[in-house]
Amino acid sequence: MTENATTERRPQYAVFIYEAVPPEDLPPDVMAGHIGLPEKIAAAGGRVVAGLGFQDPSTTTAVRGDLLTDGPFVETKEALAGIYVLEARDLDHALELARMTPIVSGGVEVRPLVDFQVLP
């Protein structure tokens, strides 16, 4: 690995995973696909920086000012099931990498991140 490869900052993208199937009902091959996703993305020239899976939407509490309500902020058939952050060459590359995300019924959303880092 060259020095440029270790210090080069590449654009980061958030990949939001929307799934209609609750996490506990995901087929084993889909779960295995999620576990192996960082390696697949690395093999395709990207890098997963962080990732989180969310618990079932029924565990969500929405906050609107002083009002607390059970359930997600927006009711949809597909719920936000997780998020990961990846580095890619550009948006087209990020979209290519995001297509590798295993989904049973739903999809992913890719959003470029604004770099708010203040540390060198």
From TrEMBL:
Family, similarity comment: Belongs to the YciI family.
Domain of life per record: Bacteria
One Pfam assignment: YCII
Organism whose genome encodes this protein: Cryptosporangium minutisporangium
InterPro entries per UniProt: Dimeric_a/b-barrel, YCII
PANTHER family: BLL7171 PROTEIN, BLL7171 PROTEIN-RELATED
The protein's name in its UniProt record: YciI family protein
Ranges where the YCII-related domain occurs: 28-116
